[in-house]
Amino acid sequence: MEPLILKTDSVVLEFDGRKILQDVYLECKQGEVLGILGRNGCGKSSLLRIIFGTLTPAYKHISINGQYIKKGYQNMRIAYLPQHNYLPKGIKIKKLAQAIIDSRFWDDFSSHPIYRDYHEKTIAELSGGELRQLETLMVIYSKADFILLDEPFTHISPIQAEAFKAIIKKCAKVKGIILTDHQYYNILDVSDRIILITDGYTRPIKHKDELVTYGYVSHIN
């Protein structure tokens, strides 16, 4: 079976007359991890929200295998991890998980310490760090064909980041994953392809040294 392909084309986003995104194009297919880099305020988070369907730009055309997608979250085609907490606080973790998690990954998810140790608790009973881990896991292991992750590595420890990168790579065998993070070295490490947003446009990065050329970083370790 041919992999599903998510295409985002001709995105134009303006705030107060200033163009944030101009004719943005990207595509991601099942079986790959696409990393998006760019400086603060360049539109990375906005682009993910546009794909998911919670931000309406001046123009967009989003499709999965040629079928126009108006709202990515409908029918759980696309799942999204925002920077803020999103899970309802009063519901038991076990109940939420049973509704969200892809059955193909249930054993992986349910054996993770954050679920194994807290599944009988409610979201409100978790600490901030525990909640961020759970929210990230639930999105990655969700039933969606495409996963959008905004800053998945920012509020977790380096050891947890390494564990999440392994999970992302495993799930990307059957899902398409798009992610962005200020910790660019984690994005470079986990991604199959890199897109840089600069001056409102998307630029494919063929070699990491181009991140210096475009002024995103001063040097690459």
Fill in the keyword field for this structure:
single chain, 221 residues, alpha/beta, six-stranded mixed β-sheet, four-stranded antiparallel β-sheet, 8 helices, 29% helix, globular
Which helices and strands appear, and what pairs or packs with what?
Layout: E1 5-15, E2 18-29, E3 33-37, H1 44-52, E4 59-64, E5 67-68, E6 78-81, H2 93-100, H3 106-111, H4 113-116, H5 128-140, E7 146-150, H6 158-171, E8 176-180, H7 184-190, E9 193-198, E10 201-205, H8 210-213
Parallel strand pairs: 3-8, 3-9, 6-7, 7-8
Antiparallel strand pairs: 1-2, 1-4, 4-5, 9-10
Structure in words:
The chain is α/β, with parallel strands linked by helices and 221 residues long. 29% of the residues lie in helices and 28% in strands. The chain has helices spanning 44-52, 93-100, 106-111, 113-116, 128-140, 158-171, 184-190, 210-213; strands at 5-15, 18-29, 33-37, 59-64, 67-68, 78-81, 146-150, 176-180, 193-198, 201-205. The strands form two sheets. It has a six-stranded mixed β-sheet, sandwiched between helices. A four-stranded antiparallel β-sheet has the order 2-1-4-5, with helices on one face. Strand 1 (5-15) and strand 2 form a beta hairpin.
Q: How would you classify the quaternary structure?
A: single chain
Spell the H/E element sequence: EEEHEEEHHHHEHEHEEH
Give the overall average pLDDT: 93
Strand order of the largest sheet: 6-7-8-3-9-10
Strand content: 25-35%
Shape: globular
Percentage of residues in helical conformation: 25-40%
Number of helices: 8
Global Rg = 17 Å
- What structural class should be given to the helix and strand makeup? alpha/beta
Largest sheet: 6 strands, mixed
Tally of DSSP β-strands: 10
| Regions with little confidence, pLDDT below 50 for 5+ residues | none
Q: How far is the first residue's CA from the last residue's CA?
A: 40 Å
